[in-house]
Amino acid sequence: METIRHEMISKFVFKELNSDNSGHDYNHAMRVYKNALSIIHTLPQLSEESKNIILTCSLLHDCVDYKLYKNVGKQNKKITKLLKSLKYSNSDIKVILEIINNLSYSKGISKERIEEQVVSDADRLDAIGAIGIIRAIEFGTKHNRKFYNPENDKDKNVTIMHFYEKLLNLKDVMYTDYAKSVAVARHEYMEQFLYEFYKEIK
Ligand code: ADP
Ligand code: NI
Prior knowledge:
This protein has helices spanning 4-17, 26-41, 48-60, 72-85, 90-101, 114-125, 129-142, 159-165, 177-201. By secondary structure, it is an all-alpha fold. Helix 2 (26-41) packs across helix 6 and helix 7 (129-142) crosses helix 9. It is globular, with a radius of gyration of 18 Å. The termini are far apart. Bound molecules: adenosine-5'-diphosphate (ADP) and nickel (II) ion (NI). Nickel (II) ion is lined by residues 24, 28, 32, 61-62, 123.
């Protein structure tokens, strides 16, 4: 962790997400934080304030996900309280809440600020490659889905479809050069996985 404040936030995230088993657990938040740090290292023009906003969002981004929480408003209030106690400015809190509430791929909101682009890249890198395969299977299992349907290869309700609907598109929606290059390698790995999978079930 870069700062004591991030340590405190990660403890909050641990309490919030440790019991999740749908691919959004505490370890995901930690990997997104690490990805964000790697991207930040390639962007020397970022101010300290921007870096802090990015890293804070990386840790907190899934704590307002409507798929995990019925009451997202309550989550926003909890986060505001936490950040105030850690002496974040009101304007930084506003930006952080905006970024984490607009992050989801499914919302399809384009990202204008460099801070949200970095958080988005960091989160999406964790949805592809070996980790991405594991998370898709975890998500599918949690939602009682089969991995594939041998009777119908167009069945939308199986996990493998998620690769075609989303995961194989992610390399083309990265913003930063660092994330683009990591995404290409992770994308190839997923294609290899799918190739092997189809070979084995043939
Ligand atoms: P986002 O934060 O962009 O909304 P999600 O929360 O939908 O992303 O996805 C979180 C994780 O769960 C990702 O690794 C994603 O691939 C996986 N996931 C989401 N929807 C599905 C699905 N229908 N089948 C399998 N995995 C899924
Ligand atoms: Ni996430």
